[in-house]
TrEMBL record:
Ranges of residues in domain Response regulatory: 5-118
InterPro entries according to UniProt: CheY-like_superfamily, OmpR/PhoB-type_DNA-bd, Sig_transdc_resp-reg_C-effctor, Sig_transdc_resp-reg_receiver, WalR-like, WH-like_DNA-bd_sf
Keyword Disulfide bond: no
Source organism per UniProt: Leucothrix pacifica
Descriptive protein name: Two-component system response regulator CreB
Length: 232
């Protein structure tokens, strides 16, 4: 994942320095911002491939910054949070985050999570000659080449992680997926995320599709996992 541009946004200069060093060591270029407003201005002038965004900052916090960025771009966003229990806000429907890391964090893990998100995003942008790029289930349609999802011809905007999870279900519509199988496919590099993170992504996929009239998209099989619903 060399030569990718990462925008690092944090009001703590030490954290910015640690992250920048780790990313540059991984052969990525880095732009930095001290607050959400500065990040928004920088991104508008020169878009990045991914944003590492702290939540609690002056001027404009990370959540407000993410909302503004989502008005113009689906760029992957990885949040930095000082509280693990903020996950629902971080990955929420109205926020649009792809992943999060809780402070204090390992720079190596942060780089691995960034690589995992970039790998998913790149895979969704590159046509796969060996597979059908257009997937359908009832009125639900997904195009893996164009990275689009629609219900009854109405577009649905998913984050890179949400898209990757839904693609699993669409590609194997009769399969029951455990949380572990979802995790291993959506998160590369042997990264472990909690069951709560997976459940949160599933909940937000459901919410986004329900907003356009799809009342059933992913079924829960209690004590087993999830599977694709009929989508009619």
């Amino acid at each position: 994942m060399s030569h990718k541009k990462i925008l690092v946004v944090d009001d703590d200069p030490h954290i910015r320095e640690v992250i920048s060093f780790a990313l540059e060591k991984a052969e990525m270029s880095v732009a930095i911002a001290e607050n959400g407003q500065q990040a928004l201005d920088l991104f508008t002038k020169s878009p990045s491939d991914l944003i590492v965004l702290d939540i609690n900052m002056p001027e404009m916090d990370g959540l407000a910054c993410c909302r503004e960025i989502r008005k113009q771009s689906e760029v992957p966003i990885l949040f930095l949070s000082s509280r693990d229990d903020e996950i629902d806000r971080i990955l929420g429907l109205e926020i649009g985050g792809d992943d999060y890391v809780t402070k204090p964090f390992s720079p190596r893990e942060l780089v691995a999570r960034i690589n995992a998100i970039l790998k998913r995003t790149q895979a969704q942008q590159v046509p796969e000659e060996t597979s059908d790029s257009c997937l359908r289930q009832g009125l639900l349609t997904m195009n893996t080449e164009e990275h689009t999802v629609s219900w009854n011809e109405e577009s649905v905007h998913l984050t890179a992680t949400e898209f990757a999870i839904l693609a699993q279900f669409m590609q194997q519509p009769s399969r029951v997926f455990t949380r572990d199988s979802i995790m291993s496919s959506a998160y590369q590099f042997n990264i472990h995320v909690s069951d709560r993170t997976i459940d949160s992504h599933i909940r937000h996929i459901r919410s986004k599709l329900a907003a356009v009239g799809c009342k059933s998209v992913i079924e829960t099989l209690h004590s087993v996992g999830y599977k694709l619903a009929p989508c009619e």
